[in-house]
Design a protein that fits this description.
With 52 residues, the protein is mostly loops. The protein contains 1 helix and 3 strands; from the N terminus they run ββαβ. The chain has a 3-stranded antiparallel beta sheet. The longest helix has 6 residues.
Length: 52
């Protein structure tokens, strides 16, 4: 299941950006928000992929 951007509701197929509360944003929305989470005000950073 692909993550969904909390701002635009689009499925994220490229880089996922997250704050420390795991809010997920697509790259265009992250750039629009200047890398600041709209929900908590924390920095949005590229999420580390989970490997199994």
């Amino acid at each position: 299941m692909e993550p969904t951007c909390v701002r635009c509701q689009e499925t994220i197929e490229t880089t996922v950006y997250q704050c420390s509360h795991a809010c997920t944003f697509c790259e265009p929305c992250t750039k629009t928000l200047d890398h600041i989470c709209q929900n908590c005000g924390e920095l949005l950073e590229p999420a580390t992929p989970v490997t199994t």
